[in-house]
Design goal:
about 170 residues; alpha+beta; HIT family, subunit A; 6 helices; HIT-like; nucleotide-binding; nucleotide binding; catalytic activity; AP-4-A_phosphorylase
Length: about 170
C-alpha cells in the first residue's frame, strides 16, 4: 500500500509524464533565448512535432497543448507580427489552417475549433517573437472539472501518436 511507503505526504498532485523525458535526454529543448519555431524545422519531423512542411509555413503540434490535436501554423521566417508577414506567408497560413481543420475533423472527430493568434507578449503570446496561429479542436464535452479544480489537463494520446495520425491523414 502507498500509505506504507516512506516519505512525508504533501498536498501536491502529480501527473506522471515519462514520455517527456526524451526532450531532456536528447537535448531537444532549445536554449531559453532560442526560438522553438525556428528550431523545429531544423529537426526531423518527429523530433520537431511537425505534421506538414509547406513552401513558406509549416504545421506542428503544440508541445503544451490545450487539447489533443492542438496545432500551430508558423512561417519559417522569424517574424513577430501578422502585419509583418508577406502576402505569400499569410495566404499559405490560411490554406494550411483550412487543411488542418479538415484533417483534425477526420482524425479526432472534433465538433468545432478555436483558431487565433496572440500578437505580442502583452496580448498573451507565449512566444511573441515568432508569428504562429493556434488551431485547437473542441468537443461538446471537453470542458470538465479537471482544468478548473485541479489545474490539470487530461490528454488521452501521446504527442507522437497524434503527430503520426495527423501526418498520415494530411493530403499529399
Amino acid at each position: 500500500m502507498s500509505s506504507e511507503l516512506p516519505g512525508v505526504p504533501d498536498h501536491f498532485q502529480r501527473l506522471w509524464t515519462p514520455y517527456r523525458m526524451v526532450y531532456i535526454q536528447q537535448g531537444q529543448m532549445p536554449e531559453e533565448d532560442a526560438c522553438p519555431f525556428c528550431r523545429a524545422p531544423e529537426l526531423q519531423d518527429d523530433e520537431g512535432l511537425i505534421v506538414h512542411r509547406g513552401e513558406t509555413c509549416f504545421v506542428l503540434l503544440n508541445l503544451f497543448p490545450y487539447n489533443t490535436g492542438h496545432l500551430m501554423v508558423c512561417p519559417y521566417r522569424h517574424v513577430g507580427m501578422y502585419d509583418q508577414a508577406t502576402t505569400d506567408e499569410v495566404a499559405e497560413m490560411a490554406v494550411l489552417t483550412q487543411t488542418a481543420m479538415r484533417v483534425l475533423s477526420q482524425v479526432t472527430r472534433c465538433q468545432g475549433f478555436n483558431i487565433g493568434m496572440n500578437q505580442g507578449r502583452i496580448a498573451g503570446a507565449g512566444i511573441a517573437d515568432h508569428l504562429h496561429q493556434h488551431i485547437v479542436p473542441r468537443w461538446s464535452l471537453d470542458s470538465n472539472f479537471f482544468p478548473i479544480i485541479a489545474k490539470t489537463k487530461a490528454l488521452p494520446i501521446l504527442l507522437e501518436d497524434m503527430r503520426q495520425d495527423i501526418q498520415a491523414a494530411w493530403p499529399a
